[in-house]
């Protein structure tokens, strides 16, 4: 019997766009048999009365036990948000134990303008993942929407241009987020099967 693969989709969202991306990534994860997605958020540092999320705040033991991870943050001056950075600054115990080594991971983001720093923000989120020894993956150009989307999407991960007060994501953006989640889940499943067969 194949065990269930658990992928955590961890995000911080100020106005809801990054959360929407997270949900489409989770859909992609759960399109793969035996894979489930757990949507989680990080504790906010700056109070935000304009937005609330129904996702639970992540706890470190959950991260230790996951089979794969997707993390997303809005662009804050070309970097991940302070709340997301603060969370990763608390993961030293996992780093010392090597709990995340060889687990697959990916990143996603949203910005308020087309040139708002999406790719540098994605790079900033990759850094702690690499230090933890995770296997960071992006979106390959075999995904047709990566060639044609003008509303978001990079080879580093799913992205979107968020407009405050506007709801919904561009169709190609959702396709890329779905594909990214699906690829992450398939990789986690393959790595789990490889590990099982070698034992």
Q: Explain this structure to me?
A:
Helix 1 (17-30) packs across helix 7. The two termini are 15 Å apart. Strands 1, 2, 3, 4, 5 and 6 form a 6-stranded parallel beta sheet that branches. This protein is 40% helix and 17% strand. The chain has one domain (5-198): Flavodoxin domain (Rossmann fold, 3-Layer(aba) Sandwich), CATH 3.40.50.360. It is an alpha/beta fold. It has 7 helices and 6 strands; from the N terminus they run βαβαβααβαβαβα.
How is the secondary structure organized here?
Layout: E1 5-11, H1 17-30, E2 35-41, H2 60-65, E3 68-74, H3 82-88, H4 92-97, E4 104-111, H5 118-131, E5 135-136, H6 145-148, E6 159-161, H7 171-198
Parallel strand pairs: 1-2, 1-3, 3-4, 4-5, 4-6
Mean pLDDT: 91
- Percent of residues in beta strands: 15-25%
Please tally the β strands and state the result: 6
Spatial gap, N to C terminus: 15 Å
How helical, in percent, are the residues?
25-40%
So, CATH architecture? 3-Layer(aba) Sandwich
Work out the helix count: 7
- Which homologous superfamily in CATH is the superfamily? Flavodoxin domain
* Low-confidence regions: none
| CATH fold topology | Rossmann fold
Basic shape: globular
Name the CATH class. Answer: Alpha Beta
Question: What count of domains describes the coordinates?
Answer: 1
The whole-angstrom Rg is 16 Å
- Major sheet: size, sense and barrel closure? 6 strands, parallel
Order of helices and strands: EHEHEHHEHEHEH
Structural class: alpha/beta
């Amino acid at each position: 019997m194949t065990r269930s693969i658990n992928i955590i989709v961890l995000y911080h969202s100020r106005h809801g766009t990054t959360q929407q991306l997270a949900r489409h990534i989770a859909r992609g994860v759960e399109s793969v048999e035996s894979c489930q997605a757990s949507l989680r958020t990080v504790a906010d540092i700056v109070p935000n009365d304009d937005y609330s999320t129904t996702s639970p705040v992540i706890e470190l033991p959950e991260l230790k036990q996951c089979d794969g991870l997707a993390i997303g943050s809005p662009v804050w001056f070309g970097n991940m948000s302070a709340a997301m950075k603060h969370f990763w600054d608390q993961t030293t115990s996992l780093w010392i134990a090597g709990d995340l080594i060889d687990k697959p991971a990916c990143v996603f983001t949203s910005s308020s303008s087309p040139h708002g720093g999406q790719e540098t923000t994605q790079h900033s989120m990759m850094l702690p993942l690499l230090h933890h020894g995770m296997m960071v993956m992006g979106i390959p150009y075999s995904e047709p929407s990566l060639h044609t989307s003008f509303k978001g999407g990079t080879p580093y991960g799913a992205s979107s241009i968020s407009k405050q007060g506007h709801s919904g994501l561009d169709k190609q953006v959702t396709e890329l987020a779905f594909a990214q989640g699906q690829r992450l889940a398939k990789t986690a499943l393959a790595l789990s099967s490889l590990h099982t067969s070698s034992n």
